[in-house]
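Notes to self after the Tuesday call (sharing in case useful).
The group wants a holo model before anyone commits to mutagenesis around the pocket. I volunteered. Ligand is zinc ion. Logging inputs and output together so the record is complete.
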Amino acid sequence: MKKILILTAGFGDGHNAASRSLREGIEMLDEDARAEVLDLFADSYGLFNTLVKKTYLGMVAHTPKLWGGIYSLLENPFVEKQLGGFTRLQETLEKILGQTQPDCVVSTYPVYGHVIKKIYASHRERPFPFITVITDSITINTSWFRAPADFFCVPNEASADVLRAGGVPDKKIKALGFPVSPVFANAARELPAPVGEEPRRVLYIINTGKKKAGKAIDRILEVDGVHLTITAGRDPELRARLIERTREFSERVTVLGWTNQMPELMMSHHLVIGKAGGATVQEAIAARCPMIINQVIPGQEEGNAALIEKYNLGAVVEKNKEVAEAVELAFEKKAALWMEWRKQLKKVSHPDAALKIAGLVLEQCESHCPRPDAIPLFETAPARVMRAAAGNGGGAQMLLCDFHIHSNYSDGKLPVPDLVDFYGERGFDCICITDHLADPKRLLGKLSELANLTLGQEQLAEYFAVIERERRRAWRRYKMLVMTGIEFNKDGYTRKTSAHLLGVDLKSPIAASLEITQIIGQIHAQGGLAIASHPHLMKSEWGKNTLYLWENQEQYAPLLDAWEIANRNNIFNDIGLKRLPFVANSDFHKPKHIYSWKTLIHAEKDPEAIKDCIRRNEHVAITLYRDFGAPAGMAPAALDAPAGHFFRERPLQAING
Ligand code: ZN
Ligand code: ZN
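Result:
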């Protein structure tokens, strides 16, 4: 097995995106390779790092000029000395490298090169190939290439020129493109130019700290034939405001919240409007979708904007009101300007960059010969491998399960892929993602506050598609089962009329407006489980006391497959006393909710076997879950540390052993 360590940092949006895409590329090319993405800033500096990130985002929003100044400070040799002074980071990295002995190390953030240089300064040779993947374009901070690496991957030829001018030998420079998601490489289709009356499909990405998009959007809608898709990000209030604002144009405006489907969106639109973030600009180029940049953070993002201008791949505008003019210009005269942009894009687009860089990384692994004393820490813990093997070949085993988890498709904090990694790294065997889907009739009067905390009708297809994709990845990577679910919200105004119902392991959407008994019928028709969520006294933003099912248990107990005997920290004894079928779930919304009640099932690792145990109320147990970092003060910082799984104590083995 080849072991590849990818080092990243959560500053800006380019580094993490590049790291994840590269990991995906590596695992696509070589099923035996194992790539780990690690943010050592989060690990070594914990809260400090969170603070810096917050400050960074704050600065981006309020004082972009100031941030530009700070970014250029990195050019200063004195500051570089300070960077070398990241002692804790250096110690942590040294420890990880010693214990895991990777076959290749990749960095997507400039600081790591300097730290590695320091670790292997005088006394020893670096025992692994080291590749720096530069995520900036054209204005490239010299700190990226002043520390040595075997190869420097850059997004384009213009960036390669900067490195050559900076004295980097030609044979070390690889202009393979920016590692965008391999999804771009697989899509063969290319959106044709809009002709005649066909809609001009424009995608508007609203940025952090840029909420005054309303007027710009009004103006764009005045342009003939424009159909607008807006992504409002993780800001439900903004989304609600925009839906309201564009109501009269609703037949040609779609307002989305946060989305996992950016590649698909870019590939299905003629133009994208957004800020000059590294990932966004590079994704637009990979999708061959011309871009209009409406915001540039000085320093860090100037190169990305310069890239669009230099290669004529779109336009950079100074003011929001110029956006509509740029859109109009692009499409006038039979979209002449747009066609020119598209032509240029085809020349510089590298949709398969992640796979190309992955190829280089794997090639370097081959050339590297591992030392005989290598400790196989990258392998999954032995207990899990054995359990996974047992799962493949049949035989019951104790399975750690959580059937009630919210992603940021409704009111959860984490995107679906992050949830899969979060649970996968903790050795869970089966999870079900259950975002809220509210009965629109019941939302009446609460629409403005709650509409954005639930899945939208237009998101359902995407929701099922994304979980399906992650289901396959979770099995490949963690041998963990992932199911698609929905929490149906029937929220009334009194406790007797509120009910939350989980549909677990669904194959397709079910309308939340149906009667509860009809919903249960459809869940069963799909082979899923219908489970009453928190049927006890409780409080949430949805209202309180979802007691309807419990108070009408004569009617519903025969229909339901199980009841939540425990939800997060609450236990509802009566369900046990009545000997009703039960499960225990996190009702996970954010990382600290992992410290909560869970279900253990003794069965084969197979969805049908698991569901069967629950239905029959056999071989089911509940357990209170804790892991590293918990629970003294609940140590939320430890939960942000992706490095945790390198050293984790596995509470699971204790449970299973
Ligand atoms: Zn609920
Ligand atoms: Zn819930």
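Two things stood out.
The longest helix spans residues 322-348.
The chain is about 40% helix and 20% strand.
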